[in-house]
Amino acid sequence: MENLISFTYPKDRRELVKFYREKEYKSYFAERVALASADLVNTDGNTLDEPLNSVVTSYLRVIHDSLSASGITVWSIKMETVSNLALNLSGGVFHTILNLGVSLDPILGIPFIPSTSIKGAWRHAVWIILRNLSPDNADTLIEDLFDNIPVVVKVFDAYPTYINSDGGYLVIPDILNPHYTSTTRNELDVNPTPIIHLTIPRGIVFETVVGIDVKALMRSFDESTAEDEEERRRIRDRKERWKDLMNKLAERPEGSRDRVNNIEKTILVILKAGLMLAGKLGIGAKTSVGYSRLEVEINE
Fold first, then answer.
1. N or C, which terminus of the chain has less Cβ within 10 Å?
2. DSSP letter string over the chain?
3. pLDDT value at 208 more than 60
4. pLDDT tens digits, 170-179
5. Other C-beta atoms within 10 Å of 241: how many?
6. What is the average pLDDT across 67-92?
């Protein structure tokens, strides 16, 4: 099964020497990776070529069905890149020799968004929402959802399922042009240094599945499961901070009492809003300069 890893690394000895000796080779290699990525796309259907498309589809279906069978709330997530997506710029299979970082699945050899990137951005966005709702408890509430055992939020890697980028590329060369360094004193000292790197272009839809095990959190409120007084105290503290959040929501003039009186619905609403916000803030690197913005669609 051909992929970006299998047919872009040079095998000829003379070409390998260029990796180390010729600066221009980095630009050439980045273009080569981009051209190779277009060969993995079925332009008639804007999908990955077979068998890659079938592997990704099966992966998503198996996770969805497994979570559903476990009684966990399942969301199918689509994330479309609305700006170039920068992921793993300081790592990946091309970084060791050419210092070209990009997030490629080590088995499939195609771009993907790691679950850790999604979860980290989602966690931060939900924390922003909770900080506005319950400033005193935001840090512990976010731990209840994303960090503590039992794990409430389960996130998986996202893979491209619809490719509508210009030229049908999965990966494109890009340039960062830093102007300022720690020694820059004024505009006369500016010395722009173009840095070539690889990004995922706009117009690519990534899909994944997430599981929301709210019932696991509710079960963690049961003091009868505690083995000692210290654990019972932690359970009481957890119940108290969620009760405090519900009270604060009930006091808000725009709050719906039907919604805020149900803690399970409230958690789902907050998590959904957080995931949408995460896409707007950016999932990936270089978000401060406009990279890694995604439009998130949630199918509950």
1. C
2. ---TTTTTS--SHHHHHHHHH-THHHHHHHHHHHHHHHTTEETTTTEEPTTHHHHHHHHHHHHHHHHHHTT-EEEEEEEEESS-BB--TT-STTHHHH-----B-TTT-SB-B-HHHHHHHHHHHHHHHHHHH-TTTHHHHHHHHHTSSSP-EEE--BEEEEE-SGGG-SSEEEEE-----TT--SGGG-----EEEEEBPTTEEEEEEEEE-HHHHHHTT-GGG-SSHHHHHHHHHHHHHHHHHHHHHHHSTT--HHHHT-HHHHHHHHHHHHHHHHHHH-SSB-GGGT-S-EEEEEE-
3. yes
4. 999 887 765 4
5. 16
6. 91
Output the pLDDT for position 61: 97
- Of 100 and 193, more confident: 100
pLDDT digit string (tens) for 14-26?
A: 766 666 566 667 7
**Residue at token pair 């990966």:** 171
Q: What is the pLDDT of residue 282?
A: 96
pTM, rounded to two decimals? 0.87
Whole-number pLDDT of residue 88? 82
Q: Which of 166, 153, 98, 85 is nearest to 125 (CA)?
A: 153
Give the domain ranges of the chain. Answer: 13-299
Nearest alpha carbon to residue 118 among 300, 299, 292: 292
Residues 230-240 have pLDDT tens digits of: 889 989 999 99
* Residues 229/235/241/242 CA torsion (nearest 10 deg): -160
Q: What length is written for the chain?
A: 300
32: exposed, middle or buried (C-beta count within 10 Å: 0-12, 13-18, 19+)? middle
Contact 144, 242 (CB under 8 A): yes
